[in-house]
Structure formats: C-alpha cells, structure tokens
Amino acid sequence: MSEAGIVIVGAGQASAVAARTLRRRKYAGPITIVGDETERPYQRPPLTKEFLVKGDDDGLYLLPEQWTEDNAVEVRTGVRAVEVCADGSGVKLDDGTTLPADKVLLATGGSPR
User: CA-CA to 57 of 20 to 30 Å: which in 46, 86, 87, 112?
Assistant: First the structure.
C-alpha cells in the first residue's frame, strides 16, 4: 500500500461518513479531508435547530478532534482544492501545496441557490 492514501475533497457530512467508514472497514492508509470552510465537518440541521438555541456544540461536530487524532485522519479546513492532478499525483490546494493521493473522493456537496 502506498503512503499517499486517500484525499477527500469537501468537509461535510459525506466526507465524515466516508472517513469513518474507511476506518471501520480497516483501511489503514492516510486519510486527509480538505474543506474551504473554517470549521470541521458538522451537522447542519442541529446547527440551526439546537446550537443556535442552546449554544452548546456537544454532538455538533461529526469528526471531533479526539476521534481524528485516534484514527489518524487529517482535517484541513480553510483551504480549497483547486485541481485533481490528471497524472495521479494528488490534489492541488489554493495555498500552493499538493497533497499526494492514491485515490480522491469528491464529496463537495451542494450550495443553496
């Protein structure tokens, strides 16, 4: 198995479920989640229905920091993927770095119009 691993583009619910599923199914390679939002993957409905009323973020985040540490999942927020390299070398980010990747999962979701 290569050390490049899997890069998941998008830091929403789909990426969180994908990372958890990969670890649950014993995928041992590196996993990196990239998202342009400044927050870690979180649940959208509880944000609007519970967090704004109670102000408590308990259970809001889908991949708490402790879980990502324990499961060796890197979450890079505040950075946008700008190119999936056609030569298979990885994913280029808007900060000028390139993340090596054996596989890329596009989980960018949608935007309300």
Answer: 112
